[in-house]
């Protein structure tokens, strides 16, 4: 197994269109992302950066996962519930790692990241993010996902 590089990074403030839901499990994100991206397309919202999931639970959960599906957007426009457009505050310090490959192998990367956090005596202190830098449905081995965990 190749160990991935963990980096300390700040996250800028950003405006996002979001939909927050409690889903059955991490694997149940696909249909919700379909709903979010269809809405973005219908509304012709200007997407400014890769979309991401923000996990509001502290730590891993087997079920009933609190996820905010986020798409960085240019304009602050009125949108109907359950969608909303709002500003995410900047995050001064995160532990970050890049995952290359299918989403099914993300747990291995999370284990490395949380191992690094523990080893470096840091404390997770806010919602983690999975930024979907490159999504390749036809070839999941080509996916690139950046994971960010705010730390203190």
From TrEMBL:
Lineage at the top is: Eukaryota, Sar, Stramenopiles, Oomycota, Peronosporomycetes
Q: What highest taxon heads this organism's lineage?
A: Eukaryota
The entry's protein name is AraC effector-binding domain-containing protein
Q: Provide an example Pfam family for this protein.
A: GyrI-like
Specify the AraC effector-binding domain's residue ranges. Answer: 4-152
Alphabetical list of InterPro entries matching this protein: AraC_E-bd, GyrI-like, Reg_factor_effector_dom_sf, SmbC-like
